[in-house]
Write a structure and sequence with these properties.
The structure is a single chain. This protein is globular. The N terminus is likely disordered. It contains six helices and 35 strands. It is mainly beta. It has a single domain, classed as Beta Barrel (Maltoporin, Chain A). The longest helix has 13 residues.
Length: 671
């Protein structure tokens, strides 16, 4: 542990030294307090707004991934440090920030996952990635760790918010786009954006299909988005956003490490022979308002509803009908307090919903028939007071309450319910130089109530006694620009009680999920954009993750599995004045990564080389080439956690092989 602590302390001492900087303009995902002249206004405004946060935040614009075959979070967030986003199959991927939901082998928890401020998650907080359309994200906001208070989020990982274009903020009035590539990948999209007087509208449709790199990974998708707005003056509007999707996805299953390295394209025998699938139809709508009462006071809020029909035959048939409704509102105030510059926001978020689930062996009588109802409410606030022109003190917190009500229609003795409340405070400090460079620090409490996947675990009757996961996270960082270099560095340490993990600590309860005693997540997050010369940009990100048990009765101080200790990404892009660019990139995971809690099995590291190129013509036509894994390396970037891989009979078929060599190309026309 001494080397790890020394690394953290050394990086901490370096962070303030680089903060006394001046700014440049450059295309970056890095948030700084000074506007970037190369950003479209809507993206520049987002970066400026997030720069008020005394913590780690990022903005990823559509411009940074539009010249690639971006099909999911893995592609959108590849340059954001602290984020672990690895594809499993199709658009299903692992998504974790600072180890949130670290061992979640399917879907996502531990991060507030939203679009236009509206949660994608079910009412119990469980989220699904396939409900998003990357092509209709104008930009993506990433609030890492305890920095999601603006949404009422109090999860360990923070929040992710995808923002839909409007008729006024879309990149062009019309877009036609076609793509094709390896493994019979095909995608076509059309978008229109219009504004007239007080009205504006944006509409998009996306069609996608492909066979996938692995056997039994075929997918078919159709998605549609409509965003209609009515303005009532400056900073006053109402907006209706409607989204629908129909997604059919085969599931290739998981392999052992030996199988994945020997023949990564194969599907698991069971998945292929029993035709595992994951088909769903999604519909969501929200009515949102933004109303400025004065120069000092702004209100934002809305109502939303989401429905999902899921047909998911795997080892069991999972048939779900999911309905979620919610409301949110926030008041933002800017002014003076005791003669000092100050700002404040206060908000309320509420959601409710239910899941009707049929469960049973495929083609046999049902074994489960249940309704799961959940609610969640957060009341939150945060204030900044500038005690000097450049130094702000920050304080805030969230109060929340949640309920869980489970009804087993086949066996009422399994019925159970749970309700509880929590409070998560936050303090911080933000210093900003005249040039716009910033140093920040904060201490944040986070709380994650248990989701139904942890509470309802057959054959245990009723709810498994899972406690809410709580953590205190300390964070210090700096961001800014100096000369041709834009940078963002953050150090954090989270001390967690009752971390929800998929393991059984020999408690006598036959459960797959349980609470750990005490764990620690700490690390370093670094992002740079360096304009070496005119037209030549180096973009890099580095994540150091040190996650471990702290005196656990069984695992002692073992490292936690799944998250690699070191993760590096780097791209060198040359853009010619004629409009073309070429950008080689490397993704490097040095060393091996633990697979099990007992620390007996490791997954090998890897190095993946890719190449992106494109040409933008003056008539609105642009072309791109996206070539991945050029050396056709066999590697395993994603896997589930195992309790003890060395135990007799342990199931170690938890690996998802990485995609082999692939080439994609696309053409778009903006007019």
């Amino acid at each position: 542990m001494s080397f790890k602590c020394t690394l953290l302390v050394s990086a901490l001492t370096l962070a303030p030294c680089v903060a006394f900087a001046q700014t440049i303009t450059t295309d970056a995902i890095i948030v700084t307090a000074r506007p970037n002249s190369e950003d479209p206004p809507v993206v520049a405004d987002a970066r400026e707004r997030l720069s008020r946060t005394p913590g780690a935040v990022s903005v990823v614009s559509n411009e940074s991934f539009e010249a690639r075959a971006a099909t999911g979070l893995t592609d959108l967030l590849r340059d954001v440090p602290g984020v672990l986003a690895q594809r499993r199959y199709g658009e299903e991927s692992r998504f974790s920030i600072r180890g949130s939901g670290l061992d979640q082998a399917y879907h996502q928890r531990g991060v507030l996952f939203a679009q236009d401020g509206v949660p994608f998650a079910d009412a119990d907080g469980f989220a699904d990635f396939q409900k998003i359309d990357p092509l209709t994200a104008r930009y993506v906001e990433v609030y890492r760790g305890g920095n999601a208070l603006r949404f009422g989020g109090a999860q360990l990982g923070g929040a992710l918010n995808l923002v839909t274009p409007t008729g006024r903020t879309a990149q062009s009035e019309n877009l036609l786009r076609v793509e094709a590539g390896s493994f019979d990948f095909r995608r076509a999209a059309a978008q229109i954006a219009r504004s007239s007087g007080d009205w504006d509208a944006f509409a998009a449709i996306t069609w996608l299909e492909g066979d996938g790199f692995r056997d039994h990974a075929e997918q078919h998708q159709v998605r549609g988005t409509l965003n209609i707005g009515r303005s009532f003056g400056e900073d006053r509007e109402l907006r209706l956003i409607v989204y629908g999707a129909d997604i059919d996805q085969q599931v290739p299953g998981t392999l052992t490490l030996a199988q994945a390295l020997a023949d990564p394209a194969q599907a698991s025998f069971t998945a292929a022979n029993f035709d595992w699938q994951r088909d769903q139809t999604i519909f969501r709508t929200s009515l949102q308002g933004r109303w400025r009462f004065s120069d000092a006071l702004l209100f934002e809020g809305g109502l939303y509803a989401t429905t999902t029909d899921l047909y998911h035959p795997i080892s069991l048939l999972i048939d779900q009908q999911v309905e979620t409704q919610g409301a949110f509102g926030r008041l933002d105030w800017q002014g003076e307090m005791a003669g000092k510059r100050a700002d404040l926001y206060v908000g309320l978020s509420y959601r409710q919903g239910h899941v009707d689930q049929i469960l049973g062996p495929v083609m046999f009588p049902i074994a489960g028939d249940s309704r799961r109802e959940a609610t969640g409410m957060e009341l939150f606030a945060e204030a900044r007071l500038f005690v000097t022109e450049h130094l702000a003190l920050v304080a805030g917190g969230a109060y929340g309450r949640f309920t869980r009500d489970y009804v087993d229609n086949l066996n009422p003795s399994n019925n159970d319910d749970l309700d509880d409340d929590w409070f998560a405070p936050r303090i911080g400090v933000l210093w900003e130089s005249q040039s716009g460079a910033q140093i920040y620090a904060n201490l944040t409490n986070s709380v994650e109530p248990p989701h139904y996947g942890a509470l309802v675990q057959s054959p245990y009757p009723g709810f498994v006694p899972i406690a809410p996961q709580e953590a205190w996270t300390g964070e210090i960082g700096a961001r800014g620009r100096v000369g041709a270099l834009a940078w963002d560095v953050t150090l954090y340490r989270a001390e967690i009680d009752n971390e929800i993990l998929s393991f059984n600590p020999t408690s006598g309860v036959p459960a797959a999920f349980f609470n750990a005693h005490q764990t620690v997540h700490q690390g370093v997050e670094l992002a740079i954009d360096w304009e070496i010369t005119e037209g030549l940009l180096l973009r890099g990100s580095y994540t150091y993750s040190d996650f471990f048990f702290d005196g656990d009765p069984i695992y002692g101080d073992n490292d936690m599995p799944v998250a690699p200790e070191h993760q590096v990404g780097a791209m060198l892009r040359y853009t010619h004045s004629a409009g073309w660019f070429i950008a080689p990139r490397v993704e490097w995971r040095p060393g091996e990564t633990w697979v099990d809690y007992a620390n007996t099995l490791r997954a090998p590291g890897y190095t993946i080389w890719s190449l992106n190129a494109g040409w933008e013509f003056a008539n609105g036509v642009s072309l791109f080439l996206d070539a991945r894994n050029l050396t056709d390396e066999t590697y395993v970037p994603e896997f589930g956690a195992v309790v003890d891989a060395s135990a007799p009979g342990a199931n170690t078929a938890v690996f998802y092989p990485g995609e082999g060599r692939a080439i994609y190309g696309g053409l778009s026309y903006r007019f």
